[in-house]
Design brief:
- By secondary structure, the protein is of the alpha+beta class.
- Among the domains are: 52 residues, no CATH class; 113 residues, Band 7 domain (Tetrahydropterin Synthase, Chain A, 2-Layer Sandwich); 35 residues, no CATH class.
- 67% of the residues lie in helices and 16% in strands.
- It has 9 helices and 8 strands.
- Strand 2 and strand 3 form a beta hairpin.
- Helix 3 crosses helix 5.
- The longest helix is centred in the middle third of the chain and has 149 residues.
- It is elongated and about 220 Å long.
């Protein structure tokens, strides 16, 4: 009985000992913290550390091997104040702002935080972050003019967040927000800018008022112009209507005048047509009278002349036929007689011609008559004399010069 109680007591003590040991070795990680178990080699990919990180949940610490540290992940509010920080242009400025930073709980940024801030208090972490932010704030101010800083604080804060966030990440901190609360200076530069802006605002207000007045005046005169234009359009329309009425009246009068003139023309045309018909009847009368008085007798005379001409023609034709037959017989007889017959024929023809010539010249005294005949069939002096006479006649006919007479005159002057 006593041994059982002893064993039970030992068991209870063992259980309490186990519970105490587990309580001392079991660590529960809150959502806003990170547990760091140091003492064993760990490999995180290419990164090799001698600690392991537990974020959320629980883990057991190996006794005598590992130690446990807690890292708070809650935000740290830091007031950032910079005085006499020279901006672009050499104007010193005073800037006040508020930043929210925290220790990152994600890999691999938390390794930078553990290496730099593990075991250090939150005050030390906030001091380092404040000094880093002030340095970045001075650097950003050196790149901006006071007007730019004062005009757009949000853009200034965004630029400062970009610059400072990079530096804070390198030391293992995360900048959540950064707000610029106040920007001032000790030389009154921003006040002068404010006065300038106030003056600009007043100027803009005056300009806006002047523009409003100008717009009102413009609207007024535009309405006046619209009214005047409407009056002018109405007057133009009235004048156009009157002009249309005048044109209509003129067209009506013109139609009346045209109708009157057309009637006159029609009357004259009818009169002319009547006169034409009368003249045509008169022409027909004259034509018939001429037909009876002139044409018919002329046609009778023409028929009589044609009949007489046909009778005379028949007579002439018969005479011509008889003459032709006689000439044919004479030609036959002359050809039968040879050269003597030709001479006889020539003399018969020359006798009437000579008689006719003699009757034109009256009495002719012939001193000497020379008859040139053929000297025979061999072509003697008779042919030469005939040629000379023919040549003399041809020259006289062509030039008007009588060669024989000229020679006789020349020979007579020499004797």
């Amino acid at each position: 009985m006593g041994a059982g109680l002893a064993l039970m007591g030992i068991g209870i003590i063992g259980i309490f000992a186990v519970i105490l040991m587990v309580k001392n070795l079991l660590y529960v990680c809150q959502p806003n913290e990170v547990l760091v178990f140091s003492g064993r080699r760990r490999s995180h990919g290419a990164l090799v550390t001698h600690y392991r990180i537990v974020k959320g949940g629980r883990a057991l610490r190996r006794p005598f091997i590992e130690t446990v540290d807690k890292v708070d992940l809650t935000n740290m509010i830091i007031e950032v104040t910079v005085k006499n920080a020279y901006s672009k242009g050499g104007i010193p400025l005073n800037v006040q702002g508020v930043a929210n930073i925290k220790v990152p709980g994600e890999m691999p940024l938390i390794h930078n935080a553990l290496e730099r801030f593990l075991g250090r208090s939150r005050e030390d972490i906030m001091r380092v972050a404040r000094e880093t932010l002030e340095g970045n704030l001075r650097g950003v101010l050196a790149l901006l003019t006071p007007e730019e800083v004062n005009r757009d604080k949000e853009a200034f804060g965004a630029r400062l967040t970009e610059e400072a966030g990079h530096d804070l990440e390198r030391i293992g901190l995360v900048l959540d927000t950064l707000n610029i609360q106040n920007v001032s200076d000790d030389v009154g530069y921003l006040d002068s800018i404010g006065r300038m802006r106030s003056a600009a605002v007043r100027r803009d207000a005056q300009i806006a008022e002047a523009r409003a007045q100008a717009d009102a005046a413009q609207v007024k005169w535009r309405n006046y112009q619209t009214g005047e234009l409407a009056k002018l359009r109405a007057a133009i329309e009235v004048a156009r209507r009157q002009n249309d009425r005048r044109i209509a009246d003129a067209r009506t009068k013109r139609e009346a005048m045209i109708a009157e003139q057309r009637a006159d023309v029609q009357a004259q045309l009818a009169q002319a047509q009547a006169e034409i018909a009368m003249q045509a009847a008169r022409v027909e009368q004259v034509r018939l009278q001429l037909q009876a008085d002139v044409v018919r007798p002329a046609e009778a005379q023409r028929d009589q002349a044609i009949a007489l001409a046909k009778a005379n023609a028949s007579k002439i034709v018969e005479q011509g036929k008889a003459t032709a037959q006689v000439l044919k017989d004479l030609s036959t007889a002359y050809r039968g007689q040879g050269a003597a017959g030709r001479d006889v024929l020539l003399m018969q023809k020359l006798v009437p011609v000579l008689q006719q010539v003699a009757s034109t010249i009256g009495e002719l005294h012939v001193d000497r008559l020379t008859v040139i005949g053929h000297g025979g069939h061999n072509g003697g002096s008779g042919d030469l004399a005939a040629k000379l006479v023919a040549t003399n006649e041809q020259i006289k006919a062509a030039t008007g010069v009588d060669v024989a007479q000229a020679m006789r005159a020349k020979l007579g002057a020499g004797t």
